[in-house]
Design brief:
By secondary structure, this protein is α/β, with parallel strands linked by helices. It has 9 helices and 10 strands. The strands form 2 sheets. Strands 5, 6, 7, 8, 9 and 10 form a 6-stranded mixed sheet that branches. A hairpin with a 3-residue loop joins β6 and β7. The longest helix has 24 residues. The structure holds zinc ion. Zinc ion binds next to loops. Zinc ion (ZN) binds next to loops.
Length: 280
């Protein structure tokens, strides 16, 4: 049963990757992702596969973790008898409220630190709902993709937003392996899903020299990296945030503004200014 649950979690990632790819890069990589989804579905019992697809169509994500005895999808409490059964994972269980499939989140998995909220001086509007001046890196030291992701994740841990930067980086790299999140204009959107305990959290890092994010693919060198920590319940918000960010950075002038910011504060100011009308 654990293998089936892991397969379904991976299937979920593939669906999310496809939705994101469709939005960001048009048809590129879509064929690969669709093939991977089909292959994965073949290994899942037919009733489970159709339940998964129904849930995925109606209210994605179809499978969510149970966190502190609460459904990670709808936030409702799970009856205690079911909590034990989900923990034991001898059968598949669904949330009595939202009907999503549930799994037990390993207690050592990286988490969002609940008390740590983004924003500055209590102001939480626009982009400040998701990020803070201390989550800006104006000049990355890393020179490759893995190092970049690790540097950002370590910073998220050091700043008190997540519990385990290293494992957060591992999750983001597993996602990159499915399909690169790098797109044209030197942008990349690496992320980790199912990180529970708080809201969407965004870090922005700039690489003055540029790093190869997609292994010599068409995206070229990546210079502006938005790393996002995504709790299960915020999947739809994430796609909206992503749409707002890509719209913001369509023009050269906007990207140059971020590239030219020399300090955290300047990068923060530039981001707030640029997203004033695109991220409300
Ligand atoms: Zn639920």
């Amino acid at each position: 049963m654990k293998k089936l649950i892991n397969d379904l979690i991976q299937l979920q990632e593939l669906y999310e990757a496809r939705a994101q790819q469709e939005m960001l890069a048009g048809r590129e990589h879509l064929g690969e992702l669709e093939r991977a989804i089909r292959e994965m579905l073949v290994g899942v019992p037919p009733e489970t596969a159709s339940l998964f697809q129904r849930l995925q169509q109606r209210s994605p994500p179809a499978i969510v973790p149970m966190v502190n005895n609460v459904c990670g999808g709808c936030g409702m409490a799970i009856p205690i008898s079911q909590v034990h059964a989900i923990h034991a994972a001898t059968a598949l269980h669904t949330c009595p409220t939202c009907a999503r499939l549930l799994y037990f989140l390993d207690t050592s998995a990286p988490r969002r630190v609940p008390g740590k909220r983004p924003g500055v001086a209590g102001v939480r509007v626009g982009i400040a709902r998701y990020t803070s001046p201390e989550l800006m890196i104006p000049s990355l030291e890393a020179t490759d993709r893995d190092g970049t992701i690790l540097e950002i994740c370590s910073m998220l841990e050091t700043q008190g937003f997540v519990t385990d930067g290293r494992r957060l980086a591992e999750a983001a790299l597993r996602r990159e392996a499915m399909a690169s999140t790098a797109i044209e204009h030197g942008l990349a959107f690496p992320h980790a899903r199912g990180i529970e305990g708080g809201g969407l959290t965004l870090a922005l890092a700039v690489s003055p020299k540029g790093v190869r994010f997609d292994g010599g693919g068409r995206a070229g060198l990546t210079r502006i990296i938005f790393f996002v920590v995504i709790p299960s319940a915020a999947s739809a918000f994430y796609l909206r945030l992503l749409a707002g960010l890509t719209k913001t950075l369509q023009g050269d002038a906007a990207r140059r503004k971020l590239m030219e910011a020399e300090t955290r504060e300047k990068l923060w100011k530039a981001l707030c200014q640029l997203t004033r009308k695109t991220i409300l």
